[in-house]
Amino acid sequence: MEEMIDNYLLGLLSEAETKAFELRIASDDKLAREVTIQRDLMQAAKLQGLKLEINNAYRKVRMGKMLKTAFITTLLAALVGLGIFYITQNKKPKIDTTEVGASLPNNLFEIDNTKDTVIETPSGLIFHIPANAFGDIGSYDLEIKEALDALDIMETGLSTMSDSNLLATAGMFKITASKDGVELQLADGKQITAQVPTDEVDPDIMLFDGVEDSTGNVNWVNPKKIKNYLVNRSFDDLNFYPPGYLAKVAENGYDEGNKQFTDSLYWSFDCGVRGEYYNIPTTSMTISANRVSLTTMKRADGSLDTIFYKPLEAHEYDTVYEESQYQVPNSESDIKQICPASIKALQTKRFAKTYIATKEFEQRLQHLFEICDETSLDIYIANLDKDICYADSIVASRMSGSKKEIFQRFAAQKLGNTEKANPAFAKLAAYHKKKKDAFDQAAKRARDKVLSKYAKADADKEVRDLKQAADENKDRIDNYHKELNTNMVEAYRQAGLPYPSPPLPKGTYIIPITTMGWKNLDKYVLESTTTRTSLKTTYNGKDISIEYHPLSVQIENEDNFDFVRVYLIPDKLPSFQKVNKKGIFYKETLNELFDYELVCVAQKDGAYYFYQSELAKNPGSKFISLMPKSRKEVQRLLQKYNKSTSARSLSDELEYEAETFLYNKDLKKRQKKEAFRREIEEVIWPCLDGKVSCAEAIVEEGEKLFAANCASCHNLNNKLIGPALAGIVDKYEEDYQWLIAFTKNNQKLIKSGDDRANAIYKEYNGAPMNVFENLSDDQILSIYSYIDCMSGSATPRGPMPGASEPTILKIVENDSKDPALSDTTEPITLSIPIIPFDITQRDTIPQTSPNTFPTQTNLFAHLMTEYPAFYNQLEQDFDLKDSTFHASFRVIHCNLKRTSFITASNANKTEQYEIDMSTIGMKARERKKFFELCSQDCARI
Amino acid sequence: MKDSLLLTKLRAGDPKGFQKLYDYFPVIQKWLVANGCEKNQTQDIFQQALLVLCEKVQDPAFELSAKIETYLFSVSKFVWYNYARKNSGKNLPLKQVPTELLELEASNDLDALYEKETKLDYAFKALELISERCKAMLQLFYLKKKTMAELAKEFGFKSEKVAKNQKYKCLQYAKQKALQLISE
Which residues of B touch A44 (CB under 8 A)? Predict the structure, then answer.
C-alpha cells in the first residue's frame, strides 16, 4: 500500500490509475488519512533533508574560511633560492618524482629578462619581476605553483606545521626560475614583489620559507614579518574620476575609453563653477520693444506684419553690446568640493612614487568624492611621508555615519606606505597646492575665454539683427509709401481727377483729405495697398481698378540647401522685397503697375546657387531650379539689383543670411556642448544640490544638540510652544550673528531693546525662550546647519559660515585605545532625533518643504497613494476615525536614505512600523545617489 | 557564479550551491547585528532564510524576480522581524511592512514556510522517532530523488529490492508513529 501511495504522491501513476486511486481515496476515509500522513511525512523528510544540507554547507564554508586567503604585498627577498618550497640540498628526498605539490597545476611563464615584467596567475597572484632579476641571461622560464584555498592545500598533502606549531595559512606558493633546465638564483640586490589577493588583511600574517624533510613533509621556517608596501601604479591604470563620471560620458555618446578626452573634459571644470551656467539664448534674438517702436499691420492673408518705425541710432548699438555681456559665474562657494584641478595636480610625476599612485588610494578617493570632502583629501596629501593608515585614521575621526566606518575599516588594515616613501614627501603638500591653484586658474581662464567668445558671438549677432531689422524696416516703409503713391496716382487718373500734391509725407500713414468727397476713395486705395489686394470700385461714375496678381514660387529640392531666400525686385520701387514662405511656397502678390524680377539665392556648405528671371504681369505659380554659381558671380549678378535708394544691397542681405545661418549652427553646437557639461557637472559636483553635505559631522552634531535642547519646544514644521523652525536659516542668513545671539540669550537681547527680539517676544505673548549660555557659537551653528538641512531649502549649503572645521592635522593615535577605531558593531540608530508629528492634525498641517515628510496637507491621502501597503496595514490595525488614534514618526538618516519609524497608537494598543520613503519624492539624481550609498553602506551596516 | 547557474545547482542538490549561498551571509549578518540581533542568532536566522529559498527552488516553475542575494536579504529581514516580535518584550518590536513587490514575495514565502512547518509538526516529530538510518534514507529518497540502486549502494544493501523493502519499512514505522501522535 505504501508503494501505491508513494507512486501516487510522486506522480508516477498513469492518468487512469490516478483517477481510479482518487476515487478510492474519496470513498475510503482510512486510505485518505493514510495518504495525508504519508504526504506530510514526505514533505517533512524533504524539509529536514534541506535543513541538513544547509547545515552541512555551513560547516564546509566555515572550514574553508579558516583557511581563507589573506592579502599580503610581500617582499620576497633574494634569499636562499627562490620561494617557499626550497628544499635543502643535503636533505633531498630519495625519489625526485614525489615532489611536494606535484598535483598542483604548473603556471609557466616565459619571461624576457630585459624588461620589468608583471605576471598574474589564474588565481590572482601578482608578481612584479624587475629586469635582469637573474643576471644578464636573456629569456628564462618562471614556474609558479599556488595553493591558495583549503582544497588545494589538502590535496597536495601540504601541512601547515612550523616545527610542532600549527599555523593558520593565508595561502602558499612556490616560485622557481630556470633556464634550459637549470634552476636560477636571484641576482644580488634584486627582488621580486608578490601580491596575494584577499578579502581581509590580517596584520599578523608572516612569510615562511618551506623546507622539505626526508619524509616529504614540508616544515615552515624562518618567519619574516611582511612589510605592507603599497605598490605604485601608473596613473593611466588608476581611476581618479568621481564615481559615475565615465558612465555619464559614455551615456552622452562619447568615448569613455579615450583617456585624453576624459581627462581634458574633467580638468576643464574649474573650482569656481557651482551650478551657475552660461546663459545660452535658446532661440534667435528677438528685438526688444523698448528699442524700436512697433506697429502691426494686417496683411492680405490675414497674417500680422510688424513694422518698425524708429531705426536704431549708431550709439544704441553699443548699448546693446554692453547689455549682452554675460555675468561671470559666482566663484564663491561654501561647499568644500573636490576640485578637478586638485586631482589633476595629483597626477603629476612627483606623486608617482607616493601612495597617491596606488590602487589603495584610488579606493579611498572614490569615497572622498562622494562626501565632497576636500579637506580629507588634503589630509592624505599632507601626510604622504607617513603610512597611509595614518591619514586613514585622521579622516575616519572627522567623518560620521557609514563613511566613518569605511575609513575606520581602511585604518584597521594598517596599510603602510610605498617602497620609495621618504620624509621629503611631506613637502609635496605645498607643491600640490601651488599646482592645483595654477591648474585651476588655467581652467578658469580657458573657460572664461570660451564664455567671452560665446558672449561676443551673441552680442555681434544682436547688433547684426538690430541693424538688419532697422534697415529692412526702412526699406519696407519706403516701398510702401512709394507703392501707395503710385496706386493713388493711378486711381486718381482712372477717376479722371487730378492727384493732389504734395504727396504723402514720409514716415506716417496719415492721408491728406482735401475735400469731404475724397474720403472713401483714399481709404480704398490705402487699404488695397496695405493688404496688397486688388481694388475694384466705381467713383464718380468711373470704374477704378488697381490689380494685384498672386505669385507663388516653389523651389526644386529646397531641403537640400542650408538656406534659400527669394526676392522680388520691382522696377519702380526704392528697394527689393523679401518674399515670405508659406508652407512649401513663397507667396506674394504683384502690383500690375510694376514690372518685377524674381531673384532666388541659396547656399549649401558655403557654395552659392542662383536663379533669376523677369516676371510676367500675372505669373501664377512657378517651379524653379537653382544653378550653382561662384560667390563672385553671384555678387556680380546681384550688383545689377542694388539700388541707391535702398538701405541695404542684396549682397549685404545675403551676407547677413549666411552669418545668421552660421551663428545658428554654432548655437546648436554650443547648446549641446553646454548641456553635456551641465550633466557632467552634476557628477563632478555631487554635493551641489543633493543633500550629501548634510551628512557632514557638523550636521550630525546639530541633530543631537537639537534633540537634546530644542525638540521639547520646537518642531521643524509645526508650531509647538515655540515657532516651527524650518526655513529659519534662510530668513536670517544675512544676519546669523543675531540668530546666534538670540539663541544664546534671548532675554538679554529683549532687555537691550532689540526690535526683532521684542517683536518675537510679543508674538509669543511674552513667553520667553530658554537661555542657552551653555552652548558655544559653534554648537549653535551646528544646530542651525541641521535645521537648514532638514528644511530642504532650494539651495542646500554646507555648514553655516563660521562653523569651525576640524583641524586638519589633529593626530589620532592609531592604536585600539581610540574609540573611533575600535570595532563598531553598534547600530547607527543611537542618535535619532524624535520629531513628533501628530497625525490627528492632518488637515491643519501646513505645506512644508518637499524633503520633510509628509509633504501633503492630507497625510492620509498621501499615504494612500504613495504607500498603499502601509496604509492598508494601518487601516487594518487601527480604526483611523477613532479619536484616540495617534501616530508619530521619527526619521533615521543614513546619508540620503530616510527610514521612518512610525508609531501608531490608540487607547488600546501601540504598533510600530518601518517604511522606507527614500525612493519617493526625491529627484532622480538624489535617488540614484541614495541607491549608490545605501546599497553599499547603509543596507549593510 | 551566475544566479541561473546557482539555481540549477540548488535544484540538483549540489552542495557547492548551498555553500555559495553562504557568500551572502556576512552582509546579512552585519545588517542583522545592526538591527539588534545577537551575533550567535544570526546564523539561525540566515539558515531559516536559506530554507525558504531552497524550498521555493524545489518548485520547477519557480522564477526569481530579483537577484538571489536581494531575495535572501529580504527574507532574512522578515525572519528577523518575526523573530524579534515573537521573542522580545521590549527590544525592537517592529512590524515590517512590505513596501515592494520583492519584499511582499519574501514575506509571503516565509509565511508559507511557517504554515507548512506548523502543519507538518507531527510529521517532524514522527521522523525523529524512527532510526537515523531510516530518516536519512527517506530524506535521500524524497529530497534528492535517489533511485533504489543508488540507495542500495549508499546504505550497503545487497540489491535494489532490499533497499526498496527497507525504505517501505521505514515509511511504515514513521506512519505508525505519526498515527500515534495524531491520536494522542
Answer: 120, 123-124, 126-127
